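ARCHIVE CARD
Drawer: 12
Card no.: 0347
Subject: one protein chain, sequence and derived structure
Cross-reference: see card 0346
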Amino acid sequence: MTSAELRGAIDRALAEVPRRLASGELDGSGRFYTDEELAAGAATGKLQKKEKSGAAPTAWCALRWRGSRGFRRKTLKTRPNPYDAVAYPGMPNAGTHPDNLAAMATLHGLTPPPVERCRVLEIACGNGSNLIPMAYAIPTSEFVGFDLARLPVERGQRRIAELGLKNVRLFQMDMLEAGADLGRFDYIIAHGFYAWVPEPVRERLLAFCSEQLAGNGVAFISYNAMPGGHLRSMMRGMMLFGSKGIEDPEQEVAEGLNFLRLVVETLPESDV
């Protein structure tokens, strides 16, 4: 599916909202109803539906669509961290392993610190799914990770205790508060982080790497770039639109996915 096709699908979905409000398929709360729900509501009198002659309702997924009226989003300081409410599926990333970073540094003419005796920091480490396997495989090196979300860090700490590892530690910390007290590191990893945080956090990340990276050290900072990152960014935008006004993180994810399904279902069969 091209970006132009997705834009067309979004426009068609939004164009349906006024008609469905008028027909009763979209109630005052902004909830789309499936055909089964419409039939049940009509039978019980709980839902008044105005049907045009010969017009059969389209099979829509159930979707709670919130408008922006009366909506006031909380700030990150007062809103619970969504990563505490919805577990993020962490996994190892081979590209961030010190062996790989050292090889890339060598190819670029640097003399990187020896992998078997190094200090590694992972920023936004989550539950340590990437960092803990490294610590297990390289017991003579030290591994440190921090994340803004508390619960993923606690899960990682329990895993470290279960494995009996002494060369790795995880803790909760805000990137804006990270400083020289953490020490210097031979390898700094920030994967899936830079493109998703506000500008002050990005600036602090780069400044921290400049301040705390050891001589000939390597910083791995991944980010989304155009045009390749456009489709992912567009999907994210659609999910944010579909979940606008929802405070609960789990419901926010569910409604965002529901809106994506809605967009897909409005595509003509020839575009699917």
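Annotation on reverse: DSSP finds nine helices and seven strands in the chain. Residues 25-35, 46-78 have pLDDT under 50 and may be disordered.
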